[in-house]
Amino acid sequence: MPENTQDRSGRVKLLLVDDEAGYVQVLAKRMARRNIEVTPALSGSEAIRVLRDGSFDVAVLDLKMEDMDGIEVLKIFKMMDPTMPVIMLTGHGSETAARQGIEFGAYDYLTKPCDLMELIHKIREACGKKG
């Protein structure tokens, strides 16, 4: 298993999974300015392919997507890389589902729309606890 890449370069490698392309684009640009290297995935199946080909310090995963349920993606992520922290994003008042994500190994969850600085703090906190 590759070591935490954040330790070597100082940049956090983030896998951002959300089917709202505009949201992903804006978030990726804003995070890049804060030393976070974002690899976007616009569906659950794309995220699984991306994780198969690379290694990440942390993933931010939307709970509600068109192709796959976020909980299902989380379960697969945890089989592929058990040490990678996953932060769930939830909207639509589905905190029950987000808590279910915690039961399946998610690091934490935030409600959309979330404050950028709160999300970045959560990402950095999760990276500090990896491994």
Provide an overview of this structure.
The chain is α/β, with parallel strands linked by helices and 131 residues long. The chain has a single domain (5-128), classed as 3-Layer(aba) Sandwich (Rossmann fold). It is built from 6 helices and 5 strands; from the N terminus they run H-E-H-E-H-E-H-E-H-E-H. It has helices spanning 5-9, 21-32, 44-53, 70-80, 95-103, 116-128; strands spanning 12-17, 36-41, 58-62, 86-90, 108-111. Helix 3 packs parallel to helix 4. It starts with a helix and ends with a helix. Residues 1-7 have low confidence and may be disordered.
CATH architecture label name: 3-Layer(aba) Sandwich
Query: CATH H level: which superfamily?
Result: Response regulator
Output the strand order for the largest sheet. Answer: 2-1-3-4-5
- Using the alpha-carbon principal axes, give the shape: globular
> Roughly how many Å apart are the termini?
10 Å
* Helix content range: 40-55%
User: Which regions have little confidence, pLDDT < 50, spanning 5+ residues?
Assistant: 1-7
Class from secondary-structure proportions:
alpha/beta
Summarize the structure.
This protein has helices spanning 5-9, 21-32, 44-53, 70-80, 95-103, 116-128; strands at 12-17, 36-41, 58-62, 86-90, 108-111.
Q: Which features characterize this protein?
A:
131 residues, alpha/beta, Rossmann fold, five-stranded parallel beta sheet, globular
